[in-house]
Amino acid sequence: MYNFIKKTLKSLIPRQFLFKNELFFRYFYAVFYIGNTHQCNICDKKLRVFIKIENEDLLCPFCGSLSRNRRLWGILKEDNTLKGNVLHFSPSRNLYRKLKKNKHINYSSSDFENEFLADYKFDITDINQKDETFDTIICYHILEHITDDQKAMSELYRILKPNGTIYIQTPFKKGDIYEDDSITSPEKRLEHFGQEDHVRVYSVDGLKVRLKKNGFKVSVKRFNNSLNSIYNGFKPSEIVLIVNK
Predict the structure, then answer these.
(1) Is there a smaller number of Cβ atoms within 10 Å at the N or the C end of the chain?
(2) What global pTM score does this model have?
């Protein structure tokens, strides 16, 4: 039902108008999910249940956050690393709204394909910013789209300040990184990499090696199921790379 309503609204309402009034439209559907069993840690709304969507993900009906958005927000609050200049690549609208309101940081976002709310349109392999500009960078589900990921990592290293932090997540697999430059059609990429516009599937160790080759220090946060996971609608297991310069 949720996906049907979402597709219908997208087909009937201009995109910018829909984005601007998203929370208003969401409310009429979300009222049916009000309860006390769960809580979204981004919009703080209490729910009787999250909406289950593709890939067993859990969506907040009020703000539209996915499991990984809520987990990231929890990490950012726990680590307390948000400071100074923050760059966010292709942000979810719920996190964009949340971080844009934070008066303690200089938050900016970028999206190359004009699909997300963004202040800039940076090519991540050639970022039009000075060296050592950003204190924090959020690079969630970006690198698996980038053909020359080594160039992207080099650029991220260049624009990150010393002691700065990057939060990185991609889909992961066990074993080695799987990539094949000869696979270029959307159909084949969906078959091999899990999405029409993905160019590889990383392994955790494989991504760590590539990041370290570009000068980064890398730590891995692994999350497992817990009472907080159920209450806040996190995925039972999740991996985030914390990258420092």
Answers:
(1) N
(2) 0.89
Asked if 139 and 156 touch (Cβ cutoff 8 Å), the reply is yes
Same domain, 165 and 215: yes
The whole-angstrom separation of Cα 174 and Cα 120 is 34
pLDDT of residue 169: 98
Q: Do residues 233 and 51 touch, judged by C-beta distance below 8 A?
A: no
DSSP lists the bridge partners of residue 109 as 88
Q: Are 91 and 210 in a shared domain?
A: yes
Q: What is the CA radius of gyration of the chain?
A: 18
The pLDDT assigned to 4 comes to 52
Distance from the Cα of residue 172 to its chain's centroid:
14
pLDDT at 170: 97
**Which residue, 59, 82, 107, sits at the end of a domain?**
59
Domain, as residue range, for 22: 2-59
The Cα–Cα gap between 169 and 237 comes to 13
Reading the block at residue 62, the tokens are: 């009020």
Kindly report the backbone phi and psi dihedral angles of residue 117, in degrees, each rounded to the nearest multiple of 5, phi listed first: -70, 120
Token representation of residue 36: 């006390």
User: Are 11 and 78 within one domain?
Assistant: no
DSSP 8-state assignment for residue 63: T
The residues of the chain scoring below 50 in pLDDT are 9
pLDDT at 80: 83
Rounded Cα–Cα distance for residues 160 and 136 (Å): 7
CA distances in angstroms from 18 to 7, 26, 59, listed in the order given:
12, 10, 18
